[in-house]
Design a protein that fits this description.
By secondary structure, the protein is mainly α. 85% of the residues lie in helices and 0% in strands. The chain is built from five helices and no strands. It has helices at 3-28, 35-57, 62-76, 79-91, 95-122. The longest helix is centred in the C-terminal third of the chain and has 28 residues, at 95-122. The two termini are 27 Å apart.
C-alpha cells in the first residue's frame, strides 16, 4: 500500500475519535474549559512521543509511522481548535481560563510526549 493510503487510514480513525471524545468529555463537564480538545491533544502527544521513542531504539515500519503518527495523530490532535477555543475564552471575558488552557495544554502535551518517548525507547 502507498504511504498516502496509510495516512488516510490513520486519519479515518483519528478524526472521528477526536469528534467523539470531545463531544463526550464536554457533555460530562459543565465548564467553559475545552477539556475534550485538551485531552485529544495530550493523547496525540503521548502516542507520537511513543512512536518517536520506539523509532529511536528499533526499526518501525513506515506504514506504522504513517498510519499512526501522521494519519491518526494528525487527525486526532488539533492546534487550530486549541487556538480558536483559547481566543473564544478571551472574547468571552474568561481570560484566566484562556491562560489555564494554554498553560495546561503546553505542560501536559510536552509532558505526555516526553513520557511517551521514554516508554517507547525502553520498549
Amino acid at each position: 500500500m502507498s504511504g498516502f493510503v496509510w495516512v488516510c487510514l490513520g486519519a479515518a480513525l483519528g478524526a472521528p475519535a477526536r469528534y467523539l471524545v470531545d463531544r463526550r468529555i464536554q457533555s460530562v463537564h459543565d465548564s467553559v474549559m475545552p477539556w475534550g480538545t485538551m485531552l485529544v491533544n495530550v493523547v496525540g502527544s503521548l502516542v507520537l512521543g511513543f512512536l518517536a521513542g520506539l523509532s529511536s531504539s528499533r526499526e518501525v515500519p513506515d506504514a506504522v509511522t504513517l498510519a499512526l503518527g501522521t494519519g491518526l495523530c494528525g487527525a486526532l490532535t488539533t492546534y487550530s481548535t486549541f487556538g480558536y477555543e483559547t481566543l473564544r475564552l478571551v472574547e468571552d471575558g474568561a481570560r484566566l481560563y484562556a491562560l489555564l488552557n494554554v498553560g495546561i495544554s503546553l505542560v501536559a502535551g510536552l509532558g505526555a510526549a516526553v513520557v511517551g518517548y521514554v516508554v517507547g525507547s525502553a520498549a
